[in-house]
Specification:
653 residues; alpha+beta; Threonyl-tRNA Synthetase, Chain A, domain 2; BirA Bifunctional Protein, domain 2; 4 domains; 8-stranded mixed β-sheet; Beta-grasp_dom_sf; ATP binding; tRNA-binding; EC 6.1.1.3
Length: 653
């Protein structure tokens, strides 16, 4: 038998007999590793760890620590759910059962039978019983005829519908225990690693997402190798419910929605508006120091503008439709993005190489038609404000400008308590270049600039093919919040294409015309989404400098209201914001209400405080801090407002 050469992630090359499996490779390294291997990645594709390797390959062994390892784990768990359902609900028919970001689901047709969350315990028990059998997941290639014959005999029209779109020679079955499924894989070596099981929800789902077809029952679940990990996940899930930004936004009176205004169009209440203005002011100050110039553009633009940019051809059908002028001679669109407007600002007059880089910034509100089923609080809306900026620079300035933007994004994250993040280098799909505009040369130059800039800044990075914008590659910042959830926030994008489409030019030091490069950047991404993520990350306990109400002055009774008002006025003069609670309520109720509103400081005033010209200070979540003069409190407040401790963004050299 001939040998094959296997390249491992550390670059080492090992020789194995042809037909060896990834599990064999793991065993050759250590038995401990083999026990933890869930699947493998062979030449970039996820495989069963038990699938034979017949030729030279690059192999990565996947464990629970790898996202792709979890993919195989949860894919196998979906099959385990299906096996349990088939045992408990005879005659059940199966649609699809994929893994998702957290767990898996399976769409099933129960016929006349019904299933609710009350049935979850017995299904979970059956899944655990089957998992303990440690039945192997066996992969088998079948012909199209064999696949059709099998599911015709079984009477499962959903699988037959799926088979119809498959090519003969590419069809595989997976079998574990008594259950057989149409599936591409990959799967675990056997069911044994699935130890902790929780079904989480049941919902309706139309077959193939088509409202004219039958509605199936979709059962969601999640599994883990250890019960402790499931317990921790369920705890985080409960915390997530408490931190839901829609719930907190309502309780803290930050924003609301109105059906009469329109779905996906948030209304910012006074406290939420103060929060937005603080965020805008914070970034505007940092941008000014970094050499940005603020601009303002209209909420609409002519259809021709977006035809020139290429956005209309890509997104026009899925956007708000054109607005016609009364005389019918023109068509306009609600602004879906700011970059074409900024191109026209650049083009307003001739530019010299001495002016570059030119950094134009705008808090610009844009409008995109998200499907109603995809709208979700502030995270998916139809009208949102981007902290947008576009840098026009010479080709030799791209990498340096890109690095400066990285510094700005990191400053924003540090100031707002986002410490756990990964920078995702999003490149175009080399196998599908038709999705993108621009020359190969421009793409290669811009992709190289991003990769080098990220490396020089020592960013933790992952690379994703096919995730680039249609006009250029980008660096997306994937942030993990306090509950370990991953969000895409800041983004930086290199663009050689819009300058070409808008015929942007500058006169170089050779007195010739040259094309600038454009960098798109948005550290927040959108204010709406950023506020939603920040709300859930900090549970509504905003950094002190950002809190809409930083203090609540609480008079013990009406007799001390005048003193409370004077205290507040003095603190307002030194830019400490909040309110006086002059309600006819007991002090205990006032304190509880301020705690619920997550007001950072409560200043309690009564007879003693008035006589001594002091305040009794309580801090949210900490309790009593004792009596202070206003000067002492102001000094304490300034130290606690940690934004003043942050290192500012350096002025551009």
């Amino acid at each position: 038998m001939s040998n094959i050469h296997i390249t491992l992630p550390d670059g080492s090359v090992r020789e194995y007999p042809a037909g060896s499996t990834s599990l064999d490779i793991a065993r050759s390294i250590s038995e401990g590793l083999a026990r933890n291997v869930l699947a493998s990645k062979v030449n970039g594709e996820i495989w069963d760890a038990t699938r034979p390797l017949e030729k030279d390959a690059t192999v990565q062994l996947l464990t629970w620590k790898d996202d792709d390892g979890k993919y195989a784990f949860w894919h196998s768990s979906a099959h385990l759910l299906a096996e349990a359902l088939e045992a408990l609900y005879p005659g059940v028919k199966f649609g699809i059962g994929p893994p998702v970001e957290n767990g898996f689901y399976y769409d099933v047709d129960l016929g006349e039978q019904t299933l609710s969350q009350e049935d979850f315990p017995k299904i979970e028990a059956k899944m655990k019983e089957l998992a303990k059998e440690k039945n192997p997941f066996e992969r088998r290639s079948v012909s199209k005829k064999e696949a059709i014959d099998y599911f015709t005999q079984k009477g499962d029209e959903y699988k037959l519908d799926l088979i119809e779109g498959l090519e003969d020679g590419s069809i595989t079955f997976y079998e574990q225990g008594k259950f057989v499924d149409l599936c591409r894989g990959p799967h675990l070596p056997d069911t044994g690693p699935i130890k902790a099981i929780k079904l989480t929800n049941v919902a309706g789902a139309y077959w193939r997402g088509d409202e004219t077809r039958k509605q199936l029952t979709r059962i969601y679940g999640i599994t883990f190798p250890k019960q402790k990990e499931l317990d921790e996940y369920l705890f985080r899930l409960e915390e997530a419910k408490k931190r839901d930004h829609r719930k907190l936004g309502r309780e803290l009176e930050l924003f609301t929605f109105s059906e009469k205004v329109g779905m996906g169009l948030p209304l910012w209440l006074p406290k939420g508006t103060m929060l937005r203005e603080r965020l805008e002011g914070f970034l505007r100050k940092a941008q000014t120091k970094a050499g940005y110039l603020q601009v303002v553009t209209p909420h609409i633009g002519s259809k021709e503008l977006y035809e020139t940019s290429g956005h209309y051809a890509k997104y026009g059908k899925d956007s708000f439709q054109p607005i016609k002028t009364p005389d019918g001679e023109g068509e306009f669109l609600l602004k879906p993005m700011n970059c074409p407007h900024h191109c026209e600002i650049y083009k307003a007059r001739p530019r010299s190489y001495r002016e570059l880089p030119l950094r134009l910034a705008e808090f610009g509100t844009v409008y995109r038609y998200e499907q109603s089923g995809e709208l979700h609080g502030l995270t998916r809306v139809r009208g949102f404000t981007q902290d947008d900026a576009h840098i026009f620079c010479r080709p030799d300035q791209v990498k340096e400008e890109f690095k400066k933007v990285i510094d700005l994004v990191l400053y924003v994250f540090e100031s707002l308590g986002f410490h756990d993040f990964t920078a995702q280098i999003s490149l175009r799909d080399p196998e599908n270049k038709a999705k993108y505009i621009g020359s190969d040369e421009a793409w290669e130059i811009s992709e190289r600039a991003i990769i080098e800039a990220a490396a020089e800044k020592n960013l933790p990075t992952v690379t994703e093919l096919g995730e680039a914008a249609f006009y250029g590659p980008k660096l997306d910042f994937m942030v993990r919040d306090a509950l370990g959830r991953k969000w895409q926030l800041g983004t930086i994008q290199v663009d050689y294409n819009l300058p070409e489409r808008f015929e942007l030019e500058y006169i170089g030091n050779d007195n010739q015309k040259h094309r600038p490069v454009m960098i798109h950047r948005a550290p927040f991404g959108s204010l709406e989404r950023f506020v939603a993520v920040l709300l859930e990350h900090c549970g509504g306990n905003f950094p002190l400098w950002l809190a809409p109400d930083q203090i609540a002055v609480l008079p013990i009774s009406e007799k001390y209201s005048d003193y409370a008002d004077n205290v507040y006025k003095e603190l307002e003069l030194v830019d400490i914001r909040g309110f006086v609670d002059n309600r006819d309520e007991k002090i205990g109720r006032k304190i509880r209400d301020a705690e619920v509103q997550k007001v950072p400081f409560m200043l309690i005033v009564g007879e003693k405080e008035q006589a001594e010209n002091r305040v009794s200070v309580r801090r949210h979540g900490e309790g009593d801090l004792g009596s202070m003069t206003l000067d002492e409190f102001t000094a304490y407040f300034r130290k606690a407002a940690d934004i003043t401790q942050r290192k500012p963004v350096e002025d551009p050299a």
